[in-house]
Structures are given as structure tokens and as C-alpha cells.
Recover the amino acids of this structure.
């Protein structure tokens, strides 16, 4: 019996090729998109999932509060782990690491820029499993001077040779012996690594020469702890509070510091600590959004199938009558019609499953991810089967119910000329839902594009054009002087500056500051920009009061400052001035400010206009600029004639003469700024893609549905033409129902879209407005697309010969 059902189903699909093609294409597009979205969601929700339940891993986070507000950071001071071990001698699983985002590896006249370097201690492998491929890791992390490579890193460095025993040099600072090769880091970890280095090899030179035994130093250190039960979390946090009270003395500085334990599984999703994470974080709302889009696409395709099947019902009425006369029950007919649906969706799912492997690599490139394609596992197979059954039932259950319910006598007499009112209402409701989801996506795509245009046009407070930034590998005075001398001789350079980083950059330094007389009792958060005399001109900052750093000006230095520190002076931004309590920048000039680097006090000599040091997601923060030569790890170069090849070659030559052992790499500042909004750009492109797919599926459904409606109204159209109806009149009659449904859908979609996009915009400190014209464009676009989709067929029906239309069948 089942074989007969599928044989009949195949014959019906061959007979109704148009019906089959429209539904196959619509379902195929939606199923491929749904599978890809499912792969994204499965990958993102698999981060840091542990197979064993013996220990729970936590990361220590720093949650501080002051009069300026709350701050959240995953970076903790380097002395924290030793203090925890001393206070918690019964807990053996406390690991201190330092994460280096990028550094140079050199050996045998070869140089590599390596990313994701982790300085790890001997506890690290007990918390994060390492699969050893070569060598031994026991000694590697317990003694200084050893390194562990991942398989891909070892192959990149040494090819097919055995990497164990080879020697490499990290950042020209430390010599290392390769002790082992381990499996590559999982793609679903918050802590990616290509190279592991013994933590005992870590020294202050990696963080600008600042002593790593100071509790005030926050660079890129993380502490992890493994606990055997949830009931130990509060106990551990109580011990952390006692460590704070003993070492940080927060009651004297107006800052309330709390160390909290963050579960490992929370790290990938918690936006509070996103700025400090070694890998990217993702918001659950993003996963809900793309999951909802995938569901909408599936529903749109299923609605097409339902509408087309119910429209096709009249053609099948005689078949139903014959089958019922031959003894078929309603249940038998439902099984027959459902078998057609299951066969069609089965073909779609098979085609989509096999073609996903061709779409996943470009998707990974687009998203900058490494989502694996693993079909041979329980989750994947279960998802495909559930998807097939769900799509089949959503698409075919109602049409099967309608078709099997026809009266046999009425069907055989061909008296079923129009669907029931309930069927018509359902069809209109489904079409309205399609228009609704499409308009939500259209509005979303417009708002995202509008926000990206707003970001690109918003002044950042500095000049990002024709500026290149080059990271400096070392901070030796003689090398800096030599580089300055050689850059001064290059004619294509307008100006250059030595600094910690550009106004917007990856290097950051944060500390506390306040007026000298208030510093002992209240400390405020400030970002530090170590900058020389050329910084103002190179990056186009604008002074609003006072002056910039200048050796020719005599400075009045506080008498209490030691002679060795008398050359320091501070320039603040406008927000820092307001944070200190001054409403006018002029009022801050001449005041003495103390900040947390060695508690240096110096005079404020200038105030610059606010500029952004991060993306527009974050509000402008207080910034203090100071000449700190031992913090100069970047050179910014303003080009006078644009990006000229000869000028860039001259800069590279100057670099090579000063740093012959290092690889030359430059970054264009405008590209660096654009890189801050990679995720937003991807969101914009995803919205555009999904909006296009949604519209394409809807258009397919409209074309198919209208073709069946026209076929049912052939005689009506002929009569109207005979009675004098024009082409315009007939086209309006056939399309007015769709136009009414668009308006109804818009009235529902507009508030929903406004609410969703308003929530998305809340992530930006600086954001565009959702203007009225956004909604006008959305409904106009829907009307135009619908008119184009139905226009050809309505005009074709309207111009048909009425004689042919009225001919008796």
C-alpha cells in the first residue's frame, strides 16, 4: 500500500510540473538556509562544553564600582593566583595564564607572526585537556624556557619534521625549546591557542616593562579555578573578598572591588566581559534572531505549499470523488496526499543536505568562523529527520485534510468551483503572515544599513585617513631614536608619532586618576594614551584649551614631585575634565592630577576635544595623555601624498634597518576603524541576504497562487471583458486582495519591527533614529515587489481572448 501511495505521488508531481517546481525551489531555499542557521546555532551553543562532570571550571572576574559607575573585566592582577593558592591550600586547581594576542616567532632566519599565544602554568592541562601528539608536556609547563606547539603550528614552522627539540624565539625576548606537540585547540573554545609557553618564561617586558608583581597592574592576565561542587562558589568568593581587603585596600580610594567566579560555559555569551575575552563573544539574542529568521523562511515555504495545494484542490476533486466511490476512506486519502508531501520534502531535504557542504565554506569565510560539517552523529541525523517530518506536516497536513473532506458526489459532478470560506480565510491569513515577516526583514535591513551609514559618517574626533600604524617589537631608546631619524628623512611623510597606540587600537592601558588632593580618598577610572609631541598633528586631534606637549615651554611642576619625574605633564580630553568636576576646560589648566602609574602627579597643560577610543557601541570615556617613552610600542605615520608605493617601501626599508630580526607589518588606520564594526557589517549583509530569500520565496508563492486563481476565474474574466472591463480593471480585481493583505501585514509588522530594531540599537551608545520614512520605504518596496510578481500574470489574463475564456469545456 505504501509503495502504491508513493508511486501515485510521483505521478502527480510529474503531472503538475509547475506546482512541483515552485514548491521544490521554495522549500529547497528555506531548508538550506535552515540547516546552515542550525549549524551556526549548534556551533555557538557548543562552546566550552565539558564531557566530564567531575569538576566545574570558573574564571575569576573583576567587578568594580565607584562614583563614576560600574566596570566589569575578566582581567585580574598577576599576583592573584599565588594569593589564592596561599589562602586555599586545599584547592589544587588554580591556574594563572597570560594571553598574548599576537607576537613574533623567529628561528633559523625564519619569521612568523603568531596569534593566540598563551603563557600557561602546570595546572592548565588539568583544566583544559591537551591531547599530546609528540613529546611530553610534564616538564614543558613546570620549568622556564619551554613551548608547546599545536599540530597546525608545528607543521607551519617545521613541515613534516619532528618539532620536538627545536628552538624558537618569542618576540626577541625569550628563547624556547619545543617540548611537545598537541592537538589543535577546539574551534568552540573561548581561549584559542596556537602556542603554549611556560608561564615561568613570562616577564615584565611582555607588558611594557611594568612589574608583574603589582596589584594595580591589569594587562592580559586571567585566573581559572576548578571546583568539585557548586556549594564551594560562595566560599571561594568569600576568600577572594579577604584577598582584596588584604592587598587592594579599597576603602581608602572610593572603589568597591569584587572578585566573582564566572562559569566556563558563560564566558562565550556574557557581554559584560566581551572587551577582555581572548576570543569573540556572542549575544544569545543574535542566536534567537537568526533562529527566528530560519523559522520564518521555513514557514514561508510551507505556507506556499499549503496555499498552492489548496488552490490545486479543485483540479483534484474528481480524483477524490473516484477514490471515495471505490471505497477509499478519509484516512486513506489523507495518507495518499501526505505521501506526496513527504516525497517532495524528502527530495528537498536530501538535495539540501548534500549541497550544504558547498555552502558552508563560503559561510565560514563570511562569518570568520570554523564551523565543522559533521553529519554522522546523532544530533545532526536527528535534526535532519525532525526537519523533514516537521516541514512535511506543516506543509501537507491541512491540504490533505481539505482534499480528503470533499463530498464524492459533488466532486464527481465538478460542482466544486471555489474553496470554502474557511479555506479562503486561512489562505489570506497565511499570505498575510508571509508579507508580515518579509516587511519585518525589510525594515530591519533598512535600519541596520542606516546605522552603518551613521557610524561611517559620524566624526570620531581624529583623522583616520592617510595614516598607517606599525607595531614596534621593542622599546629600546636607541632603536626608537634611530627609527625617528630615518622616518624624518622620508619626503612622503607629513608627520609621525611614537605612542602606545592610535586613538582607536588594540593596545590599551587603564588606571585610576583624580585631582592630586582627592586621589587618596577617591579614584576614578581613566584610559591612558602614552603619546609624544607628534601625536596631535599625526592623528588630527583638536585642542580646546591650553597646549600640547612642547619642550620649549617651561612647566611649573609640583615641588613635591621627585626630580626624576619633573618632565611629566598631562593632556586630558573633555570627558576627563568633566569627570574631575570642571564644566569649563580652561578651569582644569594648571591643576595637578595624580594617576595610578607609580602614583605620578603632574600639571594639566591642555585639553583636547573628545575622540573615540573604541567603537560607537561605547560612550566616550575619560582619557589622559602623557609622554611615557617606555610605553611607546607603536608608530603612527601621516602620509602627505596618500598611500604611495615608494613612500611605503621607504618606510619598510627604514624599519628593516632598525629591526632586521622582525617582520614588517603595517595597518591602515581607516581599515582598522572599519574592523571595529565587522560584526555589524555581517549583520547588515545577513539581513540583506535573508530579506532577499524571504522575498524570493514569497514571490514564488504569489506567482503560483495567482496562476491557480486565474485558472479558476477564467470564465469570470471572459465575462467581464465582454461587458467592457478594461485591462486595468481586470488587473486591479485580480491583485487588489494581495494589496489589501500587504497593508494589513504592514500595520502589524511596523510596531514589531520598531520594537526589535530599537532593542538592537540600544547596544550602541551613538545610534541613528528609526525615521518614519523607513516604514514608508518598507511598505512601498513590498507593494512594488508584489505588483511586479503578479503584474505579468494579471496582464496576461486580462488581455486573453474572451472567446477562449468562455468556451465550454
Amino acid at each position: 500500500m505504501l509503495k502504491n501511495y508513493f508511486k501515485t505521488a510521483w505521478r502527480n508531481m510529474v503531472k503538475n510540473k509547475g506546482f512541483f517546481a515552485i514548491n521544490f525551489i521554495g522549500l529547497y531555499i528555506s531548508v538550506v538556509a535552515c540547516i546552515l542557521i542550525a549549524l551556526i546555532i549548534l556551533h555557538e551553543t557548543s562552546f566550552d562544553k565539558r564531557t566530564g562532570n567531575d569538576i566545574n571550571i570558573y574564571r575569576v572576574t573583576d567587578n568594580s564600582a565607584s562614583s563614576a559607575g560600574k566596570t566589569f573585566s575578566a582581567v585580574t592582577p598577576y599576583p592573584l593566583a599565588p594569593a589564592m593558592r596561599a589562602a586555599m591550600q586545599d584547592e589544587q586547581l588554580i591556574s594563572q595564564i597570560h594571553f598574548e594576542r599576537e607576537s613574533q616567532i623567529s628561528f633559523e632566519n625564519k619569521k612568523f607572526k603568531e596569534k593566540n599565544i598563551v603563557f600557561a602554568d602546570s595546572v592548565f592541562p588539568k583544566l583544559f585537556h591537551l591531547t599530546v601528539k609528540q613529546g611530553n608536556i610534564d616538564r614543558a609547563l613546570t620549568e622556564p624556557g619551554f613551548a608547546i606547539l599545536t599540530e597546525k603550528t608545528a607543521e607551519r614552522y617545521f613541515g613534516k619534521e619532528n618539532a620536538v627539540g627545536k628552538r624558537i624565539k618569542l618576540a626577541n625576548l625569550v628563547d624556547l625549546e619545543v617540548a611537545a606537540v598537541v592537538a589543535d585547540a577546539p574551534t568552540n573554545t573561548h581561549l584559542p591557542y596556537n602556542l603554549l609557553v611556560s608561564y615561568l618564561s613570562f616577564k615584565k617586558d611582555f607588558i611594557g616593562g611594568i612589574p608583574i608583581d603589582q596589584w594595580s597592574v591589569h594587562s592580559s592576565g586571567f585566573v581559572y579555578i576548578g571546583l568539585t561542587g557548586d556549594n564551594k562558589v560562595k566560599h571561594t568568593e568569600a576568600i577572594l573578598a579577604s584577598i582584596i581587603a588584604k592587598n587592594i585596600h579599597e576603602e581608602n580610594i572610593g572603589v568597591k572591588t569584587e572578585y566573582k567566579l564566572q562559569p566556563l560555559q558563560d564566558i562565550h555569551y556574557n557581554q559584560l566581559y566581551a572587551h577582555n575575552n581572548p576570543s569573540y563573544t556572542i549575544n544569545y539574542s543574535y542566536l534567537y534572531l537568526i533562529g527566528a529568521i530560519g523559522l520564518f523562511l521555513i514557514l514561508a515555504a510551507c505556507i506556499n505549499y499549503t496555499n498552492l495545494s489548496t488552490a490545486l484542490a479543485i483540479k483534484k476533486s474528481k480524483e477524490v470523488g473516484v477514490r471515495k466511490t471505490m471505497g477509499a476512506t478519509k484516512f486513506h486519502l489523507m495518507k495518499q496526499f501526505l505521501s506526496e508531501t513527504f516525497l517532495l520534502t524528502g527530495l528537498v531535504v536530501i538535495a539540501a543536505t548534500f549541497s550544504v557542504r558547498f555552502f558552508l565554506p563560503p559561510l565560514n569565510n563570511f562569518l570568520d568562523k570554523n564551523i565543522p560539517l559533521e553529519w554522522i552523529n546523532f544530533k545532526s541525523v536527528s535534526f535532519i529527520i525532525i526537519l523533514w517530518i516537521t516541514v512535511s506536516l506543516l506543509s501537507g497536513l491541512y491540504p490533505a485534510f481539505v482534499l480528503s473532506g470533499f463530498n464524492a458526489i459533488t466532486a464527481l459532478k465538478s460542482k466544486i468551483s471555489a474553496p470554502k470560506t474557511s479555506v479562503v480565510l486561512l489562505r489570506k491569513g497565511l499570505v498575510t503572515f508571509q508579507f508580515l515577516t518579509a516587511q519585518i526583514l525589510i525594515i530591519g535591513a533598512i535600519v541596520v544599513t542606516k546605522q552603518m551609514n551613521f557610524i561611517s559618517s559620524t566624526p570620531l574626533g581624529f583623522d583616520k585617513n592617510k595614516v598607517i600604524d606599525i607595531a614596534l617589537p621593542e622599546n629600546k631608546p636607541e632603536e626608537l631614536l634611530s627609527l625617528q631619524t630615518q622616518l624624518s628623512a622620508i619626503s612622503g611623510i607629513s608627520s609621525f608619532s611614537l605612542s602606545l597606540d592610535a586613538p582607536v587600537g588594540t593596545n590599551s592601558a587603564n588606571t585610576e586618576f583624580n585631582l592630586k588632593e582627592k586621589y587618596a580618598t577617591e579614584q576614578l577610572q581613566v584610559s591612558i594614551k602614552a603619546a609624544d609631541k607628534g601625536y596631535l598633528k599625526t592623528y588630527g586631534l583638536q585642542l580646546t584649551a591650553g597646549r600640547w606637549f612642547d619642550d620649549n615651554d617651561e612647566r611649573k611642576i609640583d615641588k613635591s614631585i621627585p626630580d626624576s619625574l619633573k618632565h611629566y605633564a598631562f593632556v586630558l580630553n573633555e570627558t576627563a575634565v568633566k569627570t574631575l568636576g570642571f564644566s569649563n576646560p580652561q578651569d582644569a589648566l594648571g591643576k595637578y592630577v595624580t594617576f595610578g602609574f607609580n602614583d605620578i602627579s603632574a600639571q594639566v597643560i591642555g585639553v583636547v576635544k573628545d575622540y573615540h577610543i573604541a567603537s560607537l557601541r561605547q560612550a566616550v570615556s575619560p582619557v589622559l595623555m602623557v609622554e611615557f617613552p617606555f610605553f611607546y610600542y607603536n608608530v603612527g605615520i601621516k602620509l602627505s601624498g596618500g598611500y604611495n608605493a615608494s613612500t611605503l617601501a621607504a618606510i619598510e626599508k627604514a624599519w628593516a634597518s632598525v629591526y632586521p630580526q622582525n617582520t614588517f607589518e603595517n595597518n591602515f588606520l581607516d581599515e582598522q576603524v572599519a574592523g571595529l564594526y565587522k560584526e555589524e557589517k555581517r549583520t547588515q549583509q545577513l539581513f540583506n541576504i535573508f530579506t532577499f530569500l524571504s522575498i524570493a520565496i514569497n514571490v514564488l508563492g504569489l506567482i503560483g497562487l495567482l496562476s491557480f486563481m486565474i485558472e479558476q476565474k477564467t470564465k469570470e474574466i471572459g465575462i467581464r471583458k465582454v461587458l467592457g472591463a478594461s485591462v486595468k480593471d481586470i488587473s486591479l480585481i485580480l491583485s487588489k486582495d494581495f494589496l489589501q493583505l500587504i497593508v494589513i501585514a504592514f500595520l502589524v509588522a511596523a510596531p514589531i519591527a520598531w520594537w526589535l530594531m530599537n532593542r538592537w540599537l540600544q547596544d550602541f551608545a551613538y545610534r541613528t533614529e528609526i525615521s518614519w520614512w523607513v516604514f514608508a520605504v518598507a511598505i512601498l518596496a513590498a507593494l512594488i515587489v508584489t505588483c511586479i510578481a503578479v503584474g505579468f500574470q494579471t496582464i496576461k489574463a486580462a488581455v486573453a481572448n474572451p472567446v477562449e475564456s468562455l468556451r465550454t469545456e
